[in-house]
Sequence to fold (229 residues):
Amino acid sequence: MRIAYFAWVRERMGIAEEAVELPAGIATVGDLVRWLATRDERGARAFAEPHRIRAALGGAMVGADAVIGDAEEVALFPPVTGG
Amino acid sequence: MIRVDVRPEPIDVAAELAAHDAGGHGASASFIGRVRGDDGLVELFLDHHPVLTARGLDELAAQAAARWRLGALTLIHRVGAMAPGDTIVLVLASSPHRAEALDATEYLIDRLKTDVMLWKRETFADGRAAWVEQRDGDHARAERWD
Fold:
């Protein structure tokens, strides 16, 4: 699976995207964010405040309880600010 | 005709309006969002998703077209680096009557701010740079249309 980062999440992670093998027990977007926050220092910086993180799965914005399943890409980003 | 685009190039409002109005419409409403040069802002950068930003705009345009009787709809968002005065977003909606054109335009700009994958970063003359925070008021305005 691929994780894509945007805006300050990308800056704090230092990368635009990465391929990961999800560890056992990571089922939802919320699980993924909690895992990334504990995985390394940059993850701790990017995901210290999970309530400020939004996600898209299979092309649609989803909540933290969305099941990742066999999605090709999960996008993680701050609340959007276009317009 | 529905025209939707996400592009790094400048938006030529006059050219877009000419293309939009080619068919002739009873009422055309517009919204033009521009970069403000407040507080010494020198650059506004718009980050976007290479696939999902365009898809989000397409979906928004389709929702507006399903909700109002629109003869033409143009929705163009610029991305990348911009300077004060540059056009960030252009919404044009046309209908036989003004109420639908005006409502559709307001709907599109309100929902754009909460539903589409776009992020603003401001850079100032003193070198400071900061990502813009979403405002609570944006959600309140977007939810009026639910």
Observations:
- The helical segments of chain B are 13-20, 52-67, 98-115, 136-143.
- The radius of gyration of chain B is 15 Å.
